UniProtKB/TrEMBL annotation:
Signal peptide: none annotated. GO terms for biological process: methylglyoxal catabolic process to D-lactate via S-lactoyl-glutathione; proteolysis. This is Putative intracellular protease/amidase. Transmembrane segments: none annotated. It comes from Williamsia sterculiae. Belongs to the peptidase C56 family. HSP31-like subfamily. One of its GO terms (molecular function) is glyoxalase III activity. Residues 29-228 form the DJ-1/PfpI domain. It comes from the Bacteria. GO terms for cellular component: cytoplasm. Keywords: Hydrolase, Lyase, Protease, Stress response.
Length: 237
């Protein structure tokens, strides 16, 4: 059986430059859709968070920003169906990522608060990247690579091709003007070869060897689907 480690933010808010905290967590579609697709493929999924804290759903992701009403209703129902798993994650510092065939980070604004600075996560990401085994990060989750450092202090992902939520897409959020920094800028500053689609809020996936990334919530299905296709292709005799 294929084993997946789903690393989810434990943050409940994103601290803005005026000192206010924007309530957040994980983005519904970015967790629910990959989880559903991997589960339907028969894969076994383990959810991990920093400290083993039950992750918080960003309610904005099931509002108008989360798509059409029917889709939002389906996603909420699916999240309810896996509530017991989400309520009892394992602690990230107890995880041996070598026991998993895929490590997958869904996004939301939460990672901007915790995973961007989490050294346990950063060390895991560096080991995973170096191992050559599949690693995927979606939307805001690529910010977690900022905590992945080489021994000389440089970023372990420098020179690798990745995508993630673009500045243009971030600015569509009404609170974005209060953000201390944007994901796209931070990845570029870290030396990542950042890429984005021509049209905002459309699916866009980048694959660089064992490193998979998706640009936005709309890329959730496309990213998971690409991973499933590549695993199927690799399994063929």
């Amino acid at each position: 059986m294929t084993n997946v480690l789903l690393v989810v933010t434990a943050a409940t808010g994103w601290t803005l430059k005026d000192g206010t905290v924007h309530p957040t967590g994980y983005w519904a579609e970015e967790l629910a859709e990959p989880y559903r697709l991997f589960s339907e493929a028969g894969w076994d999924i383990t959810v991990a968070t920093p400290g083993g804290v039950a992750p918080t759903l960003d309610e904005l992701s099931l509002g108008v920003a989360g798509g059409l009403p029917k889709k939002r209703k389906q996603i909420r129902a699916y999240l309810d169906s896996i509530k017991n798993v989400l309520d009892h994650p394992v602690s990230l510092d107890t995880v041996d990522e070598t026991q998993y065939d895929l490590v997958f980070y869904p996004g939301g604004h939460g990672p901007m608060e915790d995973l961007a600075f989490d050294l346990v996560s950063g060390a895991l990401l560096k080991r995973r990247l170096d191992s050559g085994e599949p690693l995927a990060l979606l939307c805001h989750a690529p910010v977690a690579v900022l905590a992945a450092k080489n021994s000389d202090g440089s970023n372990a992902f420098a020179g690798r091709r990745m995508t993630g939520l673009s500045n243009a897409e971030e600015k569509l959020n009404t609170f974005a003007w209060k953000a201390k920094w944007f994901l796209q800028d931070a990845l570029i500053d870290a030396g990542v070869k950042y890429e984005k689609g021509k049209i905002p809020l459309r699916p866009y996936v980048v694959v660089d060897g064992n490193l998979y990334s998706g640009q936005n919530p709309q890329s959730a299905d496309a990213l998971a689907g690409r991973i499933l296709d590549d695993f199927k292709a690799a399994a063929k005799p």
